[in-house]
Amino acid sequence: MPSSKENWPAELRVNPAKDALRIAFDDGVAITLSAQKLRVESPSAETRGHGGAKPPPLAGKENVKIVRLEPVGNYAVRIVFDDGHDSGLYSWDYLKTLAGA
Fold it and tell me: Sign of the CA dihedral 78, 38, 85, 57?
């Protein structure tokens, strides 16, 4: 897998409806991910399972909105959602993986 240096974001922008995040990378790749996909695929223990336990299925996230983005060092962003979820740290590599880029 490429290092984060190869996946450096040039811009992160939440759309006006707050239901999608557009990321433009410095390598020219631009991706758009829905808030629903980001929420359901959150890399947090809540969605991945605690201590190896199978996580519960997430439902009812079709209308989730992005409240804000918080930078985490130079390697990730924390996305705060309007349902209160804010514990997933999305690395630049993970965001590209989610988009299939």
Answer: negative
